[in-house]
Write a structure and sequence with these properties.
The structure holds two protein chains of two kinds. Chain A contains five helices and seven strands, in the order H-E-E-E-H-E-H-E-H-E-E-H. By secondary structure, chain A is of the alpha/beta class. By secondary structure, chain B is mainly α. The N terminus of chain B is likely disordered. The chains are: A alpha/beta, B mainly alpha. At the A-B interface, helix 4 of A face helix 3 and helix 4 of B.
Chain lengths: 172, 165
Amino acid sequence: MRRAWRWLVPLSAVPVLAVLAYGFLLDPRSIPSPLVGRPAAPFTLTAFDGSPVSLEAWRGKVVVVNFWASWCKPACYDEAPVLERAWRTYRDRGLVVVGVDMQDTPEAARAFIRQFQLSFPNAPDDGGKVAVEYGVYGVPETFFVDRAGTIRAKHVGAVTDEVIRATLEPLL
Amino acid sequence: MRRSSRCSDAGAARWRTIAALGGALVTLATLAWGQPPARPLSDETAYQIASELRCVVCQNLSVADSPSEMAAQMRAIVRERLAAGDSPEQVREYFVARYGEWILLKPRRSGFNLVVWGFPIAAVLLGLVAVGVLLRRWTRRPAGPAARLDAAMSERIRRELEREP
């Protein structure tokens, strides 16, 4: 009996250590979005060039919704050319890229758009409604919406050509 | 003996005071419970909800406490939804549906989360049981036979004491 107790105390630490070890293997920053697989929330914004931006109007197309900000360096600066390239490559196959600019000033945002000569629609999200609607917790975040209007994937961090190839191409 | 009995008298008096205070509190709480709830203040409710939501751009801050723009926007959304007639639970659900349960600073008391809530209580109970068992064991242990001093030992002690300057 005594002997058993002596072993029980150190042994009881084993499951605790196992749980801790498992926890350290996880990335605390990766938070799964509950929105993947759900219909994309409709939104209507006014782009910097004055044109209306409405998700509803693009039903039947594959839509990439990208949340960005001009102060988001370097990730947003890294991905801007990638998004522009993807839009130019796939627009004929039914792709729409839309940029939602968060917590930004119009001047800085316009300078960003000029710098990368972005030709896809970009709109400011005043009041942060669209960002919260999409559960955005940082920039950049990118949502891939299929032709039926369902969010099929969410990418946190800068989008790369590989992400476009792996995530976007199957939807087109 | 005297001393310990005085102590227990004082202890009993203290317990009576605590019991009386506790009773008064319970009475007050019951009275307050019986009152119709004060008109729900939307500002207070909004603050309450915001303080339970995680500020998404901060580290361990609530939406109510964060000075960030994102948190300000979320506070505005909370107020807006309350004004539109949503219940506090519906507002919380709105954020959970978009951000997942991660957005709640306090995990919900259901399913696997119960482990989080139950574990500290279980640990405290287990600790109390362990302390109780140990105390019983220690107090019940018969005092061992006093170390006997044989003649040789007392002689040795006497010599060592004498050697002291």
